[in-house]
Amino acid sequence: MKPRKKPEKNAPNPFEIHINKQKMTVLGQKNKNDRGLPGVSRAKALKKRKETLLQEYKLQNKSNKFTDRRIGERSRDLTSEDKLMARFTALRKKAHKKSIFNLADDEVLTHKGQTLAEIEKFDDPRSDNEDSDEDKSGKLDSAFVGDAHFGGGVLRKTGKEGAKTHRELIDELIAESKKRKAEKQRTKEATLELTEKLDTEWKDLLPLVSRAQKGEPDKGAVDDYDKVMRELRFEARGTVSDRLKSEDEVAQEEKQRLEELEEKRRERMRGFEPKTQKHRSADDLDDDVYEADPEYMLSYNTEGEANVEIGAEINGKTVGGEESDEEEECEEEEEEQSDDDLADLKAETSDESDEETEAKATKTDVVAKTDETSADLPFTFALPDSYEALQQLLDDKSSRQQATILERMVKCNHPSLAEKNKNGLGTLFVYLLQYLNDCASEKSAARLFEIYKSLAPHIFDLAQLNKENTHSSMLEVIKEKHDEFKKRPKDFPGLELLVFFKLVSLLFTTSDFRHQVVTPCFVFIEQILNKCKIKSGKDIAYGIFLVTLVLEYTSLSKRVLPTAINYLGGILHMAIPKCGVKLIKVNPPFKPTTSSLVLVEKSCEDCDFKMEASDLERDEINDSFKIRAIYTVLRLVQDFDNNLVSLPSNVEIFNDIRAYLELLPTRNYPKKVADLFESVSQQLKNRKVERKLEYIVLAAKRPKALRLYEPKIVEVFDGKKRKIQSREKAERDKLLHKLKKETKGALREIRRDKAFLGRVKIHQRIQSDNERKEKVKRIYAEASIQQSELNSLDRKKKRK
Amino acid sequence: MSNQEKPVKISKQLRLKAHEFLSSRKNSEHLLSIVRHFESGADLSSCLLTLELIFTNLLKDRDMYIEVVPLKPIEKTETNQYKEWLRNLYENCFSKILESFENDSNKIQIQGLSTAMNIISYEGKFPLENRGNLECYVPLNRLKPVLMKLLSNKHNNVHLINKYTEYLLYSDILFFSWKLLPSLTAKTNPNETYIMNYLRLLEKLELRKPDEQQTLCGNETGDFFTFDESVPLRALNKVWHCVMLWEHSPQTHKQLLIVLLERALPHLEKPLFLTDFLMDSLDVGGPVSLLALQGIFTMIQVHNLNYPNIFAKLYSMFEPEIFHTKYKARLFYLSDLFLSSTHLPENLVAAFAKRLARLALIAPSEDVVIICMFIGNLILRHPGLKCLLNNPTEGTASSDPYIMEERDPVKSNAINSSLWELKSLQQHSIPSVATAARFINSPLPTIEWDLSRILDETGDDIFDKEVKKHGKLIALAFDKSHDQILHYWNI
């Protein structure tokens, strides 16, 4: 009976359907709103309003209301007895509610009719899976199904036809399935029994089997011939090798390698600058592009822009094919678009480099000298197993001996000699960092830098051998130091940090636009220079060291760190004698009143005026320190200015320093310092005079490429056009659209609510009017009856 | 070990004594001994707890309540005498408890306050006198000394006032605190400590009734306490007149402005009277003038104040020192509000952009990022400023036409300049800053940058972000050539 109702519900009265006209039909487009049921939806809305808005309206201006919470009070189809029963059961239920905290009287839990405790004995090894597998076959067989279900029996004529009623069929079905299940169960039990039996028997047999195996005789002795043959077969064959290169060729290759590396470094330094595009004529066939980038198909979007940067430089093709995968991934990133520098690794740390650099010269020099001094050292060194071992080895040795030890250690354990050496050298690198760190706290600054200088070339070589390790361990060290600094941001950190910063500039290319180790160092240095309070001479020296490092970091890339220049200005400000009430402004962290670097007496000292390592330790400020500090700062100012001359705001950057230089008296300083002073201030003044500022003009928009007559192919076409815009903008547009839609919807709802309430009110009004009319009518009627009675009485009286 | 055990023992002993006293009237000498122990000044916190226990229990059992029948002298029975004695002791002890507010240890101060408030709560529930028809009774003669102690002119009571805030959640305490406040306000010049305490308390006092209707002194029967919202308003206005007349040190001046902005300003009857005060504060400089600026902004916005020179004032606040104060974020937020109007003259806004750009040349990197976005937003709002990025004449200049030293932004000739500073900042060492300054190279977006996201960023955040950036590229130096540091250092 019930199923008949369903189709009725799905198919509404055709007179109720309203079909929305479509202006044009699009094939394959599905429209949700092509037909609607205005009557039904209106009735629905009305019902909803009656339930919500009308109720609210009725309760308007009323402070409270009654709600009847008695069970069954509001449902009409319960008799009073039923209600009583329901309430009674609810009461009982409440009384029987079990406490969840009472763990003692638990119910016994069962699974498939067995208690859990019973199941947990696990004496039946069969898993549930097997069961379910067998269930599959426990179903009715297909013949029966074909016969009994889907009206199968109707078509076939058998002798028994008509004899079976539906009832019988069902009964038969049940009986059949029960029988099958029982059979299954029986066979299963039988197999289980048999398996167990087999197991026990096998156990008896087991000792016999093992004895038989032991008694087997050895294989016959290997024939000499076979042995020789095998040996010959696996012997390494000579491979075809390149001919030995002449010295010229080696030098040539080295030069080429360095040039390539330099080119790549420059690319990284430029960072975000757009790549210069090669000119392409309109009928360029793009042959070379396809050759360069087989992974990309050139295509154009609706704006006519290509997805591949045409004319992008083909990176590292000449270096070697093995890194080509990485290259392609890298190219997608705009900022770090250079390929992996694996070529660095290949470089043997040989001394016959084409360009004899200064550092290398000194290194060979040192090695030559050590030959005499460290004759008593052993020639081979094993890699230290622990940090303490290394410390023991290096302690109490002169720096030359230390360098020799390290050199021999690296040579003896070169990664080409054994597989594990690479990791061992990595740990050695970490230990050396730790050693430098400890030296800073134990030894004097001069000794620290001496140790650093002797170890540096070897650390450099070590770093080249295992560069992932170098990278991660340096980054870890910097992070750790920064965490320490965060705890006391007003104090200058220890000297070891200076050594590490110096090491960073030695090991990494500091000119990169963004470098994973160097960039955090920049941030760190900036924070130190910005936040730390300058209290003594060593703080001044520390800052000057950092500024020098900044210069070294940026000498190639010509970048600017304003804080460093601000620091130089602050030091110069400290040397200006402050007289009178007029304050000379200076930027924090410097204070406008400090004048600890003012030189009071005339000094004629003459030397090279370089800063000393011991300055980093001394608290008090003497005249020699004052002169040296000012001299170094002036030289730094000069070099920074030369470095940053290309910046359009160069003059503004050095504004403060120019002002301070004018206020700084030079008469007390030695001649060399005074001369430098003159030249620096003249240089800064000239910059202002010679300045040529070009007004900023936005680059003219490139003409759009013509649209190609190529069909635009979309993978899944859904009949919608999609705008190409940024994610934020798309989100904003979507939200705006939603807002508009919601506002409209809300307004419509409010309008309808108002109409509904109006209808309710007018209805009430009409009703009350009708009531009043009725009442008046009734009163009139009563009055007229009264009058008539009165009249009739009067008439009767008159008659009398 | 013994030191550890001692206080535990003593507090146990005291509690034992208290229980014995409460169980029988005969043990009254126990109470006396506890009081003596308390007066001796040892083990204050356990003494306080014990006294609290005793008096709350006495109040609950009405042991100190003397029945007063009108027009009849009190009978001189033994019980009444005992009660009289207890009451005297109670008065004494309460004042002693209040003295613990001046103790050196914060812990004992706070303990004292909570004891006092607990006793007040019990006395409110079980009053000592016939309370008549009052719906809710708060013993004002107890609450007033508490407030007086809080507003001490000797001690800095930050902790106590913070603790007292917990009690201000009860609507009755809040209400009566407001009611008592005018009488406790000093009429003449008080000292600085008093002012600080006073302003701190004032900062904590809510003007509206708390959301949950809770009373400290009401009993559980559910007497409704009616919170008349006009009383606090009247009290505030009355008090504020006095507060304004006091002489303020720079510290209290700042606190006063904070209280004014966060609490008082929306509720004052005639806020325009404050204009002079705010103007004077504006000239003080530093954080005070920033706060005053915020006040003036509210006045302009809500109370229709007309102040012609406001932009020059704002302009003069952008000094290099601002990057090293705590109020930097507030300044950026406020100036963003001020400059959000699109009806400002272009040369004025250009002056702001140019000045900020100049400051960016010396600012710490986290601020440079903010400044770059700020300037970008200014240009987005005022399309006329695009000439700073795209000069129509395309020539060269020998110097920047903008005059940094000019105090009037309109006369600074910024509109004829270009934002060379941002061009220079593209060469900043820190890549995130360099990228932030890059926006001038490409056409501007249509949506403004969201400043609030980055206003609170610090250098540490930049460091962490840079450390977390993982690239596959590992770039090592390939020559050991540059050792520039040796030119300057003998190492």
Q: In a few lines, what is going on in this structure?
A:
The complex is a heterodimer of chains A (800) and B (491). By secondary structure, chain A is mostly helical.
How would you describe the overall organization of this protein?
The complex is a heterodimer of chains A (800) and B (491). Chain A has 29 helices and six strands. Chain A has 800 residues and is mainly α. Among the domains of chain A are: 277-334, no CATH class; 357-532; 554-697, no CATH class. In chain A, a hairpin with a 2-residue loop joins strand 3 (110-111) and strand 4 (114-115). The radius of gyration of chain A is 48 Å and the shape is extended. Chain A starts with a helix and ends with a helix. In chain B, helix 1 (2-23) runs parallel beside helix 3 (44-60). Among the domains of chain B are: 1-132; 282-338, no CATH class; 340-491, no CATH class. Chain B has 491 residues and is mainly α. Chain B is elongated. The chains are: A mainly alpha (800), B mainly alpha (491).
Features:
heterodimer; A: 800 residues; mainly alpha; two-stranded antiparallel ribbon; 29 helices; 57% helix; disordered N terminus; B: 491 residues; 2 strands
